[in-house]
Design a protein that fits this description.
This protein is of the alpha+beta class. Helices cover about 35% and strands about 25% of the residues.
């Protein structure tokens, strides 16, 4: 009887230890999972669904009219913008110039990828032109596109940057200087003079002046 009693006590103690160990392990795993989940959740921003979508507005150059930029040495092009309603700051921005011929060109010194907090970028279009002879910049109209981590086709989300493609601009390449003594002639100027000479109004004016001159000469002779 005494042996059975000791055996029961030993089983109860073992059961208590096992239960305590189980609770400790369960609490440890649960606590670890809870901490991990909490830590993971804390790395994400809590954005209310009622928040407006993040916006980017280009401030330089003005959007009211099309700006024309010259592709020439030391002619730098600056694009500037500001942000509104951004809660989740993008890690980076991608800036591209999309030509009306379908070609896309990176804008800026780092292949079009700049920090997500940047509010401007400077583009040396001439250097890009000389460095990429296989894909030269066309003399045409372009659309400036800027987007964040979600890509160029990201949908509007509360607090997240919405891609912008509102700015249009044009590029042109100046012609090289040609001295007049090299044989250069203005074809348009010659054509314009020919057109004026052949115009009926011009012929009538010359005839009128001649009649006035002859009449005046005859009158002076009589006096």
């Amino acid at each position: 009887m005494g042996g059975e009693l000791h055996y029961l006590e030993a089983r109860q103690q073992q059961g208590g230890q096992s239960q305590s160990l189980s609770q400790t392990q369960s609490g440890s795993v649960s606590g670890s999972q809870s901490q991990t989940a909490s830590g993971t959740a804390s790395s994400f921003l809590s954005i209310p669904q009622s928040a407006p979508a993040g916006l980017l507005t280009v401030t330089q150059p003005p959007q009211q009219s099309t700006s024309y930029f010259k592709v020439a040495q030391n002619q730098f092009i600056t694009f500037g913008w500001n942000f509104s309603y951004i809660i989740a700051t993008p890690t980076h921005l991608t800036v591209s110039a999309v030509c009306e011929n379908g070609n896309t060109y990176p804008v800026g010194p780092t292949d079009g990828v700049i920090p997500g907090t940047a509010t401007s970028v400077v583009w040396d279009a001439y250097t890009y032109q000389t460095s990429h002879p296989n894909l030269p910049l066309a003399q045409a109209q372009y659309t400036l596109k800027i987007w964040g981590d979600g890509g160029p086709d990201a949908v509007r989300e509360p607090g997240v940057l919405t891609p912008n493609s509102a700015l249009q601009f044009a590029l042109y390449t100046p012609q090289a200087y040609t001295p007049i003594n090299s044989g250069w002639s203005c074809a348009g100027c010659s054509s314009a003079v020919s057109q004026h000479i052949a115009h009926p109004t011009f012929i009538a004016l010359i005839a009128t002046l001649m009649v006035m001159f002859i009449s005046g000469s005859a009158l002076l002779r009589r006096i």
